[in-house]
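2024-03-11 09:14:02 INFO worker-7 job=invfold-0412 stage=load source=structure_tokens
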């Protein structure tokens, strides 16, 4: 299944994790990192472990651990060892070596979702991912500017500044080069649902397949943005049917425009994704 929405939930809030199971997100990211204060992390580890062990029916459950090599990561590994994990979200990822370090410390049959742009070095390892064992690839625009002393990653109108436009694009292409899902980063203003809808629509337009959420109110908007509409599916079916009716054709005319192999590939990909969902 393609995850359209991945909702962050603080690991130290069992009540919120329980409620989040019924909010319609395709996946939950049970957070042991940024959303949890250091003093609350031990209780958060216990709560997350308990929920994962119970394996409730509903969304996929992923756990965001602390960065590899930190004391908090070692404690996360000790708490999660042997748990039936669906996936692990890996912050501060820097290519395959970081993924391998995670798996060496926490063996198991789970998928990894690297947050792949949170350090300067990470940007230069985006092409290193080969897709093996990955649930996808995502990016972020918060930790990186802090790491380099930037005042902000955004313009006054909320759009990204040029460096982070580049990073977003590189992360998008890195995911597709690795053959995994490209997951758009969060939209911080959870009150601005119209802005979120526009942002998510641009993400899908550009080739992202899903998006992370920081608030329950964002889930329905993200799901709608990343769900193909019936008109879009019907148009894709027409493209496929046209080529099936004209085997061997390189380019054909449909509704006054030319369609060729890339259009056919896009139509088939869209229909395959819809069937998988």
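2024-03-11 09:14:09 INFO worker-7 stage=emit residues=277
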């Amino acid at each position: 299944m393609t995850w359209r929405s991945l909702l962050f939930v603080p690991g130290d809030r069992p009540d919120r994790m329980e409620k989040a199971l019924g909010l319609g997100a395709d996946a939950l990211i049970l957070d042991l990192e940024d959303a949890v204060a250091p003093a609350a992390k031990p209780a958060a580890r216990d709560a997350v472990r308990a929920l994962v062990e119970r394996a409730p029916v509903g969304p996929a459950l992923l756990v965001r651990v602390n960065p590899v090599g930190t004391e908090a990561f070692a404690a996360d590994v000790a708490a999660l060892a042997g748990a039936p994990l669906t996936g692990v979200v890996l912050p501060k990822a820097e290519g395959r070596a970081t993924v391998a370090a995670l798996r060496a410390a926490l063996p198991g049959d789970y998928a990894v979702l690297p947050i792949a742009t949170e350090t300067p070095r990470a940007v230069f390892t985006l092409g290193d991912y080969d897709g093996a064992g990955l649930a996808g690839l995502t990016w972020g625009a918060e930790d990186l500017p802090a790491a380099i002393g930037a005042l902000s990653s955004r313009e006054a109108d909320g759009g990204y500044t040029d460096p982070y436009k580049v990073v977003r694009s590189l992360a998008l292409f890195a995911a597709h080069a690795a053959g995994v899902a490209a997951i758009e980063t969060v939209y911080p203003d959870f009150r601005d649902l119209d802005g979120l809808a526009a942002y998510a629509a641009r993400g899908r337009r550009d080739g992202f397949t899903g998006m992370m959420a920081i608030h329950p109110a964002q889930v329905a908007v993200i799901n709608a943005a990343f769900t193909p509409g019936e008109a879009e599916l019907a148009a894709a079916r027409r493209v496929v049917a046209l080529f099936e009716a004209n085997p061997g054709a390189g380019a054909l005319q449909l509704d006054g425009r030319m369609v060729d192999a890339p259009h056919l590939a896009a139509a088939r990909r869209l229909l395959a994704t819809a069937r998988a969902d």
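2024-03-11 09:14:09 INFO worker-7 stage=report msg="The CA atoms of residues 153 and 164 lie 6 Å apart."
2024-03-11 09:14:10 INFO worker-7 job finished
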